[in-house]
Amino acid sequence: MSNQVKWTRRGEWLELSPGKAILGAEDHEAETIKWLINTMGMPERLLQRLIHEKKIKWNGAKLLLALFPSRPLGIDSIWQELEVLFEDDFCLVVHKPAGMTIHPDGRKGEVTLDHIVAAHYEGMGEEVAVRHIHRLDQHTSGPVLYAKNEWAQLKLDEDMRLKKIERKYIAFVEGNVSSSLSEIDLPIGKDRHHAQRRRVSPTGQSAITRVRVEERYTGASLVHLELDTGRTHQIRVHMNHLGHPLLGDLLYEGSIGLIGRQALHGERLCFTHPFSGEYIEIVDPWPTDLIELQNILRT
User: Fold this and answer.
1) 3-state class (DSSP) for residue 28
2) How many CB atoms are located within 10 Å of the residue 98 CB?
3) What is the pTM of this model?
4) DSSP 84-98
5) In 63, 160, 176, 220, which residue has its Cα 20 to 30 A from 105's Cα atom?
């Protein structure tokens, strides 16, 4: 449920108007802490740090919290065009193109999404640590969520752990997927014969993918997929195991005649705003290569 408290950012400080009930309380400090936890949902770890550092203060009827201190980017900034899908003082959602990794893995000269986000923050004059909340495979396109302060990071990390952040995908797969297929509940583990691959394994981690068939073509299907868990290569492993590898997914036996990368795109990202409690739904339009693939399959 969203909170209705008005807030304004003033430099590193967030200014709130809690109302007369807090101001008139007999134990002013205790009531303030109780209000921050129970009404505002402030992460207790952050609250304790701000209390210790004396970063919570009153200015008349306004409550000030030092939520936006300067933080090093933590990564070199490299400027490239960045498609911003949503941004405020707490969150950033950007489109990740296919072929780009999210964070560096040590390869010389690589440009990752984190590098480009760092340049975006610099260009906006913000001293913000680059912190992505979830990941996408290198050759999967779609939205990626970033936290812009500690409050957001703690809340969103917890929501990821509790599976409250919804990630909805579309994929083009081989074969005609049965309409009766609605859920794949098969554990996933490492493939001991191939370092990069994963496989369905009884000793693996729990993995659940929800499936809905949208359209069928000659020898292929368009499916909508939703993750209840976030295992490495989960959609790719599950669909391949059922005999429907993703088109273009060479690692999992997908044919590469029509598209040169796995035909997988994160179409929607839904999350609860870490401060306001508002339900946010981000739609990331299909990239050109998937639109062209669908046109080819429809002919």
Assistant:
1) helix
2) 22
3) 0.93
4) EEEE-SSEEEEEEPT
5) 160
Q: In degrees to the nearest 10, what's the CA dihedral of 157, 163, 168, 174?
A: 120
CATH number for the domain including 188? 3.30.2350.10
**Of 75, 155, 161, 167, the residue nearest 122 (C-alpha):** 75
User: HSE-up of 122 (CA within 13 Å, CB side)?
Assistant: 15
Q: Per residue in 21-71, pLDDT tens?
A: 677 677 878 889 999 999 999 999 999 999 999 999 998 889 999 999 999
Cβ 228 vs Cβ 160: under 8 Å: no
Q: Is residue 183 part of a domain?
A: yes
Q: Does residue 162 lie within any of the structural domains?
A: no
Please give the share of the chain, as a percent, with pLDDT higher than 70.
Answer: 98
Percent of the chain that is helix, strand, coil (3-state, to 5) = 25, 30, 50
Distance of CA 233 to the CA centre of its chain: 16
The rounded distance, in Å, linking the Cα atoms of 160 and 170 is: 20
Of these residues, 137, 249, 284, 289, which one is catalytic? 137
pLDDT at 192 over 80: yes
Active site residue 137: yes
For residue 285, the number of C-alpha atoms closer than 13 Å in the C-beta half-sphere is 6
126 occurs within a structural domain = no
Distance between CA 69 and CA 269 in Å, rounded?
28
**Which residues sit opposite 270 in a β-bridge?**
166, 281
Q: Domain limits at 21?
A: 7-65
Kindly state the tokens that stand for 262: 């796995």
Q: What is the DSSP letter of 287?
A: P
C-alpha 70/C-alpha 50 separation (Å) is 15
Residue ending a domain, choose from 32, 48, 65: 65
